Amino acid sequence: MKWPITTIGFDADDTLWHNENLFEAHHRKYCDLLSEYHDASTVEKVLYETEMQNLELFGYGIKGFTLSCIETAISLTNGEIKAEEIRRIIEHCRNMLSHPVELFDDVEPVLEQLSSRFRLILVTKGDLRDQERKIAKSGLAPYFDHSEVVSDKTVESYARVLERANVPVDQFVMIGNSLKSDILPVLNLGGHGIHIPYRITWEHERVEKTPHEHDSFYQLESIAQLPDLVDTIVVGSNA
């Protein structure tokens, strides 16, 4: 199969640096805060339902999540939640926003190696200000020729990103931890995807089936394996 790779796209959260672990830690604190009102499973269930109801208006990111946490707490306590408890929810979420950016091992050397041979672009979704903060604090911006923060990752949004970056879709491969957001839309668009799972997957990002049968789909255990896979594919495309 011919695969003339010219451009490699990277997701950011949980692909280049840790992110979902912050939500995991917050969920534990949140459930503990509301434990006198409801058990953890009920809190988690109602919070997720509230997030999904608010997603269209609030979008992805910690700020929208914070509002859903407050709304859920008011609902689950029938309005009896104390002002001090709401303040604690806000403080926990503020700490998430100010948390240091923790890169995965091997990320920087891999980007340095690949950026000398390919055009790299960063495609991430969420709150613009928060994502821009993390990109700046990561120190990785110099490796990317083009960066975009999108409100959601769909076939249409990837098509717009590639058009603005002047990248033919058949020359594009996307790297990410989410099959739903990072891989499937790009495969459906006609590009290529390399999935690197994170140890935690948000329920909203889960899919029933991994597209192992797709010729343009690959899966790795860590980003350290990426240069070797790219070399293997390049050799195959030139055979």
How would you characterize this protein structure?
This protein is an alpha/beta fold and 239 residues long. The protein folds into 2 domains: 7-17 and 101-237, HAD superfamily/HAD-like (Rossmann fold, 3-Layer(aba) Sandwich); 20-97, Orthogonal Bundle (DNA polymerase, domain 1). It has helices at residues 20-33, 40-58, 62-76, 83-97, 107-115, 128-138, 155-165, 179-189, 226-237, and strands at residues 7-10, 119-125, 146-150, 172-176, 192-195, 217-219. A 6-stranded parallel β-sheet has the order 3-2-1-4-5-6, sandwiched between helices. α3 (62-76) runs antiparallel to α4 and α7 (155-165) crosses α8 (179-189). The protein is elongated and about 65 Å long.
Number of helices: 9
Order of strands across the widest beta sheet? 3-2-1-4-5-6
CATH architecture term of the largest domain:
3-Layer(aba) Sandwich
The total of beta strands comes to 6
Low-confidence stretches: none
The quaternary organization reads as single chain
Could you tell me the strand content as a percent range? 5-15%
CATH class of the largest domain: Alpha Beta
- The outline comes out as elongated
Overall number of structural domains: 2
**Global Rg:** 19 Å
Span of the ends, CA to CA: 9 Å
Series of H and E elements: EHHHHHEHEHEHEEH
SSE class: alpha/beta
Give the % helix. Answer: 40-55%
Superfamily at the CATH H level of the largest domain? HAD superfamily/HAD-like
